[in-house]
Every structure is written in C-alpha cells, then in structure tokens.
Amino acid sequence: MPTINLSKQHSKSPSEIHALTEQLAQLLQQKFQIKPQRNNDTLTFKRLDMTGKLCLLPNEVVVTIKTGLLTGALTPVIEAELKQTLDKYLT
C-alpha cells in the first residue's frame, strides 16, 4: 500500500491550531467526501481504500495517509494537494 507521510513546522498558537483543525475537517469533507473524526487536535478518517491521520502538534503538523489499490494511482496527486494546503494554512 502506498503511504503519504508529510510534516510541516509552524508557529501557530493553540487557538489558531484549534481553528485550523475545524477548517481542515471541512476541507476534507468538501473536497474528498471524507467526514473525519476529531479528537482534540487530531483528525482521523477512513474511506473506502484510504485511511489517514492528521495531527496538529504545538510546532508541527504531521499527516499520514495509506492508500489502497484503487486510490494508489492518485497518491502523487493527493500528496501534492496536501502539501499545497499545508503551505496555504501554515505559512
């Protein structure tokens, strides 16, 4: 199974991280029809052929996504979209 592992440093405050968690949850739902489960500042999601976790830590965001046979071919596209989104929200 292809895996996407991304991390990005940031200097956001805890309240900004909380707001960002909400924005990213909405983005996942709108763009990828994924309804993530939220536990504090961690989003986990499961979709047919794809599972993942997004952890918003005090100084870093860590994303791990496992794609399966059907979505494996889209792994580079998904990774590029995630990098672009993280840059947008964390810069």
Would you mind describing this structure in some detail?
This protein is α+β, with helices and mostly antiparallel strands. The protein is about 40% helix and about 35% strand. β3 (about 40-45) and β4 (about 50-55) form a beta hairpin. The chain is globular, with a radius of gyration of 13 Å. It has helices at about 15-30, 75-90, and strands at about 5-10, 35-40, 40-45, 50-55, 60-65. The mean pLDDT is about 85. It has a five-stranded antiparallel beta sheet, covered by helices on one side.
Provide tags for this entry:
single chain, 91 residues, alpha+beta, TATA-Binding Protein, 5-stranded antiparallel beta sheet, 5 strands
Summarize the structure.
Helices cover 38% and strands 34% of the residues.
What is CATH's topology name? TATA-Binding Protein
- CATH class (first level) name: Alpha Beta
Structural class of the helices, strands and pairings? alpha+beta
How many extended strands?
5
Number of domains: 1
Name the CATH architecture.
2-Layer Sandwich
How much helix, percentage-wise, in residues? 25-40%
Major β-sheet, in short?
5 strands, antiparallel
Estimated radius of gyration: 13 Å
Overall geometric form: globular
The topology string of helices and strands comes to: EHEEEEH
Number of helices: 2
Q: List segments where confidence is low: pLDDT < 50 over at least 5 consecutive residues.
A: none
- Distance between the amino and carboxyl termini: 31 Å
Strand order of the biggest β-sheet: 1-5-4-3-2
Beta-strand level of the residues, as a percent range?
A: 25-35%
Mean pLDDT: 87
Oligomer: single chain
